[in-house]
Amino acid sequence: MRIPSQRAGRLIAALLATLACGQAAAAVPLPAARRVLDPPLAGAAMTVVDGRLWVASRGGGLIGFERGARSMRFDLGQGLPSAVVQELASLPDGRLAAGTQAGLVLLDPRNGASEAIAPPGMEGHGMAADLVLASSRGSSLLFQLTAREPDGAEGQAGTSLWHWDGARVQAWNPGLGGALVATAGTVERADGCFHVAGMQVDGAAQQPWYARQCGAVQRTWRLAEGVPAATVGIAALARAPDGRSSALVMVTQPSADPASRRHVVMTLGDDGRLAPHCSQASFREPVTGLVHAGSELIVARAGAGLHALGCGEPRALSDDARLGNATALIRDARLGLLVATDAAVWQLGADGAPLAMTPAPGREIPIDALPMEVKAGGALVLLSSPIDGPLELARTPGGWRVVRQWRAGIDLPSAVYGPAAYAGPDQVLAVQLSQGLLRLRQGQAQAVPLEPGALPLDVAVTPGGIWIAAGSTPFGGAAGLHYLPNEGGARFVALPDRQAQPSGRLLAWPDGRIWAGTRIGIIEADPKGAARRVSADRVEALFRNSARNIVGAVGASVQRWDGERMLPVLFAIEPAPARALGHPVDLVIDDAGRWVILFSGGQLVLLDAQLRHVATLDERSGIPPSSRRLLYVPGSNEVLIGSAREGLFSLSWP
Question: Which UniProt keywords apply (predicted)?
Answer without folding.
Answer: Signal
